[in-house]
Amino acid sequence: MVKHPVVRQPGELRWETRLLTVVTAVLTVFGIASLYAAAAMEEGSFDLFVKQLAGAGLGAVALLVLSRVDYHRWRNLAWPLLLLALAALVVVVLPFTGSIAPTINGARRWLDLGPVNFQPSELARFAIVVWTAMLAAKKGEAVRGFKKGVLPFLLIIGVMSFLILIEPNLSMATLVALLGGVVLFTAGAKIGHFLLLGVAALFGGLSLIWAEPYRLQRLKCFLEPCEGGGDWQLQQALIGFGSGGPLGVGYGHGQLKMNYLPYAHSDFLGATIGEEWGFLGVLVISLLFFIFCWLGFRIAKTAPDPFGQYLATGLTASVALAALLHGAVNLGLMPTTGLALPFMSSGLSALLVALFSVGVLVNIGRSRGRPVRA
């Protein structure tokens, strides 16, 4: 009697997607609560809370819908999505589009189209993962070459990162480039290509930092104590973590939000959580993100086909890298830069894109154990 290998059925794998959804929901709800406390002293804090709450509701509906949409459809949408993201990024930086792409805090990062206000860079972050996964799966072994393999990816990723950079938004430009690289590495691109590109990126990044006085100031303050308050945000963030102690000062009782720490509800939400919820709160949030990434990469590893594997890896890495960089900035482990904490920091565009990504991840997870589409 011939024994056939055991095939795991979709129902046996469903716990991973269910747990992923639960973790996402907990992070989002906790984020809304923390955001409300952090923005309590901000003008229009209630409107910010309502907007984030509405975004969470809309994102939850999108997550449920996308979890039932066959992820293979994203292969056909990869090019249109990429072109849409590039077009939006171009509109943002054009000199004559100030009426719909206003300058806020010295940067043009938003498109304001009446009732719709969003960051094209968040769309680009999602689009680059979908497009790179599609093309890498299509190229197969050819991705190991340079001229016909890696070079086409570098051109598109480079253009997209450059458009984000001149907004200016160095942190998001870096994240987009890293995500493209993660998908390529997963697809089998040679490590030697990455080493050469890493050296080039290092020199390029240092040149960009040197070209902008405020970036250079941040780097100097990271390397050594600054005079004149150049590292004010970092110092306040560290004070917040220190004053939080093991259990925190209590929800809503933090002092950072009282104009001590700018962007306490967005770029430095991690420090606010550390102050109000203490080491235990930070540990729980870190554990939730770890579980999310563990589940995401498990789904990627067991995805039905290369496109699913690359797409799941890129979407999981998008959350993992953003959370890691946010935490590193808040703890002073890297120079100060603005990057939202996924699912939690204020920002409708970031929240919606994160929840969209989870919907796609869940669909990839649900597709395991089923016949693969041609």
Supply the key terms.
single chain; 374 residues; mainly alpha
Question: Mind explaining what this structure looks like?
Answer:
- With 374 residues, the protein is an all-alpha fold.
- The chain has one domain (12-366).
- Helix content is 67%, strand content 2%.
- It contains twelve helices and two strands.
- The protein has a two-stranded antiparallel ribbon with strand order 1-2.
- Helix 5 (146-165) packs antiparallel against helix 6.
- The longest helix is centred in the last third of the chain and has 33 residues, at 269-301.
- The radius of gyration is 21 Å and the shape is globular.
- The chain starts with 9 loop residues before the first helix and ends in an 8-residue tail after the last helix.
Q: Tell me the count of domains.
A: 1
Tell me the overall shape. Answer: globular
Low-pLDDT regions: 1-7
Give me the Rg, rounded: 21 Å
Structural class: mainly alpha
What is the mean pLDDT?
85
Distance between the termini: 32 Å
Instruction: List the total number of helices.
Output: 12
The share of residues in extended strands comes to under 5%
Side-by-side strand order of the widest sheet: 1-2
The helix/strand order is HHHEEHHHHHHHHH
- Per DSSP E runs of 2 or more residues, the count of β-strands stands at 2
Largest beta-sheet details = 2 strands, antiparallel
